[in-house]
Amino acid sequence: MNQRPEIREEELHAFIDGELDTAERGRIEAIVEGNSWLHDRVTRYRADKARLVALYGGGTSEPLPEAWLQRIETATAPRRWRPQTWGIAALAASFVLVFVGLFAWRDFIRPVRGDVVADALAVRAGAVQPDSVIAADSTKAVAAEARVMTAVLDARVKAPDLSRLGYRLAGINVYSEPARAFELRYAAPDGQTFTLYLRRSSGTPRFDQFKQDGLRVCIWQDDVVGMVMAGNVSVAEMQRLASLAYTGLTL
Amino acid sequence: MVGSRQEWFGKALIAQLPALRRYARALTGNTALADDLVQDCIERALRQWEGLRDLQRLASWLRSILHNLYIDELRRSRSRGHEEEVTEMADDLALSTPAQDGTTAIDFVRAMGRLSVEHRQVLLLVGLENKNYRDVADELGIPIGTVMSRLARGRERLRNALEGERPAQVRPIEIREMRQ
């Protein structure tokens, strides 16, 4: 008690919040354990922290006001196209359909089968042979493929540019089995491969991130497109990639 | 895809509302005011969401909007009877949360209400939202050292308020306070 070791107030709270490394935590813990006043103080701060959660943390199950939900659903519902827009779009769609021919038309009527994540990982693992492979250095071929993707996925899409995060498009694989799909292969900064598997949505919105087969996997599916990303990346890196990919997908 | 992203935003926004409402109640100490703020926050988010580049930052973006709205509200209505409003909320809380250390839920909510908004904000992000210091610093756009000093001061003031502003006992160990 006669010793006067110095602990900064901030260090004490960093200790309480688990923000210190092992060595620092051990040092502060030893001081706290050896001093009843300080120990009591830490106990009270911890109790206050726990009480904060006990008092305010329980409200998340309370039903939300219906007016809020209606307001958001109304404001974010798909915009209705005006007749003029419809006409232009129909003309453009017809042109694209003629351009890509029967090949793409066949896929419009083919139902999407199987779990998109399982299919994406099977494709990535090489269990399914691609119908065709397009090298990314062929600009015209990639541009043509974007038109095919747009037609097949029924959405205006292109290969997202992930170069801002150091990922370079290496190629596009085209599949017709088990569903008409595209695998965009990116070279990661560390030389590994990051893949983005794209196909028409099954209709159920999904967003999830998890580890499977030693890979970090992210599924992001809206009502139009299903997108499965996989690679040896951290959670934070996957979040950045997913966000960039989803926003960069739109033409 | 534009329509789809818009729908996605709507779903993501709805998914964030319970946590946002919880945060608003803890920040304001007032149920009605918190709901008004969340409603205003929804309106602003619906107007500005296209400027949000990273949907992963949605939660912190919404909290920032809510915080700004709260500051505006405080500026507009300084004369509002704060104690009475806090009491109204604390009555609800007291029903579900038993007292533990001699202080009641109402004491705790009142003590929180005496803190500055900046102190409350940091206390809630760390204590309620379980954010680490780096994330809090990023969200508030302040140095991590400022987060730490605000947290230390906020907790100390909360404790002092709970103990009835009693002067601290003689400290057998010297605690240095870092200047903010």
Overall description:
The complex is a heterodimer of chains A (251) and B (180). Chain A is an alpha+beta fold and 251 residues long. Helix content of chain A is 46%, strand content 20%. In chain A, strands 2-3-4-5-8-7-6 form a seven-stranded antiparallel sheet, sandwiched between helices. Chain A is elongated and about 75 Å long. Chain B is globular. Chain B is an all-alpha fold and 180 residues long. Chain B has helices at 2-28, 31-48, 58-76, 82-96, 105-114, 117-127, 133-140, 144-162, and one strand spanning 175-176. In chain B, helix 1 (2-28) packs across helix 3, helix 4 (82-96) runs antiparallel to helix 5 (105-114) and helix 5 crosses helix 8. Chain B contains eight helices and one strand, in the order H-H-H-H-H-H-H-H-E. The longest helix of chain B is centred in the first third of the chain and has 27 residues, at 2-28. At the A-B interface, strand 1, helix 1, helix 3, helix 4 and helix 8 of A face helix 1, helix 2, helix 5, helix 6 and helix 8 of B. Strand 1 (7-8) of chain A pairs parallel with strand 1 (175-176) of chain B, so a sheet runs across the interface.
